[in-house]
Amino acid sequence: MSNFSLKITKKLFIFFISFCIGNIFGLMIKTSTNQFQYMIGIICCFEIISLFNSKKDKLPVFFNVLNIMNSIKRGFLLGIFVEAFKVGS
To answer: pTM of this prediction?
Structure first.
């Protein structure tokens, strides 16, 4: 396996795991009484990741970590979206 395909495989694996966690989070938040606080916390975490991602030109050391965090963010949000879509249909 080449280095490029290994990077893609790692990103897809991280994306899939975060998708599953987001899906489980979407299931569990429906029965919680603190839904608003959890969602505000998740949004704040993702906005901090986006802030660092926008400044990655100035932070070359964190480039790989930011790519991983971006994959986690996208997978988690997609998992929540898919869970919400299942409830809506």
So the answer is: 0.73
